[in-house]
Amino acid sequence: LQTSTGISQGRILKHDPIQKQCETWAVKLGVTGPANFQGRLVRGRLVLFELNPRFSGTTPFRAAAGFNDLDLMLRERIDGERCPRPRYRSNLLA
Question: Within 13 A of 10's CA, how many CA atoms are on the CB side?
């Protein structure tokens, strides 16, 4: 039995196949804002079991790693800026 502490925790990794898979789903589903894809890695592919269209509890952790999706969305939606794909640090633990 494992009980959640309610605190988001995890590791930031660079995993191109998962990123490409999530980006493909986002395009097909018409996602235009923040989205939290949750799943399990099974034989090298992400098996999605939940998609939450919102900023997740890991937003501050990702921002500290260099991927500030709140800032990017505000700059694009309010300022009309075309933001480049962010560079972020990986292999970080929360």
Answer: 14
C-alpha closest to that of 34 among 63, 4, 14:
63
Using CA atoms, how far apart are residues 92 and 61, in angstroms rounded to an integer?
9
The pTM for the full model equals 0.75
Question: Residue 85: how many CB atoms within 10 A of its CB?
Answer: 7
SS3 at position 69: helix
At 5 the pLDDT is 62
What digits encode the pLDDT tens for the residues 23-78? 999 999 999 889 989 888 898 888 999 999 999 888 888 888 898 999 999 999 99
Residues 6+ apart with CB under 8 A from 92: 11, 12, 61, 64, 65
What percent of the residues of the chain are helix, what percent strand, and what percent coil, each to the nearest 5?
30, 20, 50
